[in-house]
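Hi Prof. W.,

I finally got the Trypsin-like peptidase domain-containing protein prediction working! I wasn't sure whether to trim anything, so I left the full sequence exactly as given:
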Amino acid sequence: MSAGSTYERLLSGSQSGGLEHADGGGVPSPPDPGRLITQLSDEVGRLEEHLGRRADPAALERLKRRAEHALREVVDHGADARLGPRDMASLEAVVHSDGSRPVLFVEDDFFDVTAPTAANWAASLSRIQAELRTVCRAVGRVNDPGALLGYQGTAWAIDDGVVVTNYHVLEAISTHPSRTDGEFGGELKPGVAVDFGAEVGGGPSNRVFRISRVLGVGRAGAPEHAHPTIPRINFDGLDLAVLELDRVSGRQFPTPVQVARGDDPATHGALASRGRSVYLVGFPGSAASTRPDVFAELFAGVKGVKRLTPGVLTEGRGEVADDARHWIISHDASTLGGSSGSVVVDLEAEGRKVLGLHFAGVPDRVNWAHGLEGATLELASAIPGWRSP
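And this is what came out:
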């Protein structure tokens, strides 16, 4: 699906509200640029009030101009719209502000219920409040004191004092990293830690744990399976690292999340299916991103805070091209140009089963995650005492 057709679908479908599935019927009306730009301005105004600071006026005007241009391109040309990275960044901001795929601040381990952009998803998210709070508490920012932004990605608790993140995040917080047959070679940088607070406004300060060692890493993909056009993408590999945290006297590790397993006799490894509603929790933003972070441009210095983004699985396990191992899924939740390591959680049923580990995307709203039902054996071999269901 092209970027133009994807945005046309999201921006048109948002006018009807509610959860959107990939097979939704009916013919949506075309996007209304005037209405959408007004909603974008209203959302920026709400953020100014919420954060207690004003958006950069010049950045806001640039955003509105780019958004109007990109919207006209989608309206006039649909699937054939020609969209550059900044066009798509502005459309991302519109999608966030109209409620199609909002980006919601996590506050007090829950989503910002005052955000008008949450309206289409509020009922579904509120229904799983207890489970959602457990997931939000279990997600942390991978701090790196030497990094440009001060952090490198997201990790989340999968066992007591054990977290999962991407291998490429581990590479960024290590010196001389390498991997062979699930074993890691290299040394962790000084001071790297996981901060399970890091919410907008500061959040709890007593949830920081240093990373002590690497328990295991996913396999590297065979070179002949490298993606033909996207650097460092290889669906034959597993972009995963399992890390152990140092205990801190008087502090408890977060409660681990529940992971959907391929050996669960109740689900037979088939939860991560096309059209299933999901939500991601993580720390969007990346200095190396190919898509500008509009929020960071508007509110310089306010970044690296925990956010929640709902969406839909656009491809289930076994449906992604060139995924011979059946451990890749795709989703259309907003990732703001970099959410490496974010947790992908089932929004349906009980709303607490982790379906995937986000690892990559391209600027036309194709976002990939490892479907963890397909990586059960690899996780079990890296996590001491990880039991069968």
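The first strand starts at residue 104 and ends at 107. Does that look reasonable to you?

Thanks,
D.
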